[in-house]
Amino acid sequence: MEYKSTLNLLETEIAIKFIKDTFEDELAKALKLTRVSAPLFVQPESGLNDNLNGYERAVRFDILTLKKDVEIVQSLAKWKRMALAKYGFSQDTGLYTDMNAIRRDEDLDCLHSVYVDQWDWEKIISQKQRTLTYLKKTVKAIYKALKKLAKAVNKKYPSITHTIPDEITFISTKELEKEFPTLSRKQRESAAAKKYGAIFLYQIGWDLSDGKPHDGRAADYDDWKLNGDIILWYDVLDLAIEISSMGVRVDEKSLVKQLKKKGELEKLSNPYCQDVVNGKLPLTIGGGIGQSRLCMFFLNKAHIGEVQASVWADETITENAKKGIILL
């Protein structure tokens, strides 16, 4: 691949701030969100940390004065729901915040880093809004914010050219399996993203025809019938990029059903799950949107290390430098 960044290092840093400021404003307006502060770490016994697919190890350390261990958050999915109740948000409004995490078990490549930075957002909904129709409406609002960002970037940096489709295509994991039956899970995502340009792949978690889910999902935050990922096709690297994972959060019934499916009913005893079961938390929808991935996409960068400061192997730094890819 012959590659040359349009912007130098300093110009890139300025552009990163422009993209983050612009999208943050558009997202807040689109979903009626208020910015709040969020924790970097939580106590593991609270049940607030996210175990993702179940095998990723959280980074844990002790606090001398408290004589307790805490964990760096892997996502804020559960914390946000409790914060909405604590801060007194009303229905159809919500919050957003910066989420920073460390994924110590990540396989590092041009899209994956040890350092994770994303916008986490959450808003209160009613029981009647726990539907696929409302989920799709929310996805369209986020996609509209992405289109506004694309327009703003194109205007400020005319030398950076890219387009995203006018509309996002909705496709369920079962529909994806039916359309591309001979491909692997990730190959299906790639094929659909390349075909449609931008997709929302929904209903991730329950088993497909082969008895396995399309992808792993924690059992205690998203309702697997009402969740999904926003995936964009990226011409620079000729691959699909997942920009966002989101969904309607579990209620009492879906929580118990999903925990039973994963053999994790013991989690029902933790404070967070108890609050869901006892109706102490509002019904919500929420998700995360990758900040570095968004910057990478809209600045036509070839490596996520060009838009975030992280740690890479010496060989990775050297090999990328030979290709004109300078990591921060």
Helix content: 25-40%
Low-confidence spans:
none
Overall 3D form: globular
Query: How are the strands of the biggest sheet laid out side by side?
Result: 1-5-6-11-10-9-8-7
Strand content: 15-25%
Compute the number of strand runs.
11
Distance between the termini: 20 Å
> Sheet bearing the most strands, described?
8 strands, mixed
Quaternary structure:
single chain
Mean pLDDT: 91
* Helix-strand sequence: HEEEEHEEHEHHEEEHHEHH
C-alpha Rg, in Å? 20 Å
Give a quick rundown of the structure.
With 328 residues, this protein is an alpha+beta fold. The chain has helices at residues 9-31, 77-87, 132-156, 173-179, 185-196, 252-261, 271-277, 291-298, 314-322; strands at 33-35, 41-42, 60-63, 68-72, 94-102, 115-124, 169-172, 198-202, 222-234, 239-249, 284-290.
